[in-house]
Write a structure and sequence with these properties.
Blueprint: E1 8-14, E2 21-27, E3 42-47, E4 51-58, H1 61-73, E5 84-92, H2 93-111
Antiparallel strand pairs: 1-2, 3-4, 4-5
Length: about 110
């Protein structure tokens, strides 16, 4: 999880057995190119050998609106549209599982 300053992360660290996890606070330091946030309005997830590949992308809002209008009017929507990839991350399956848990907790709190 991220606090308001954006630099404290809490994650589950695997313990001696698969069912054991320990909560640890980790202070993330910004790298050379991580000072600016990357905005994404869609994602694509693929599996690799021992990793999960997450592509973050950006579709122009005008394109999204045009596609919505086409779909509502019953017109044919293009099979493929162009988008810009913002970032690609390859993370371990364990890290992907932890990310999923953290996102579910966050979204659950937001829904209340």
């Amino acid at each position: 999880m991220t606090d308001n300053s954006g630099n404290i992360q809490s994650g589950n660290i695997a313990g001696a057995t698969e069912n054991q996890a320990t909560q640890v606070n980790i202070r993330m330091q910004q790298g050379e190119h991580t000072g600016q946030p990357i905005y994404s309005n869609f994602t694509s997830v693929q599996s690799g050998q021992g990793v999960v590949i997450v592509d973050f992308g950006f579709l122009d809002p005008q394109t999204i609106n045009a596609l919505s209008r086409l779909a509502r009017s019953g017109e044919k929507v293009p099979d493929t549209i162009g988008a810009r990839m913002s970032c690609r991350m390859a993370i371990s399956v364990e890290a992907a599982s932890n990310l999923s848990q953290q996102l579910n907790q966050l979204l659950h709190r937001k829904a209340q």
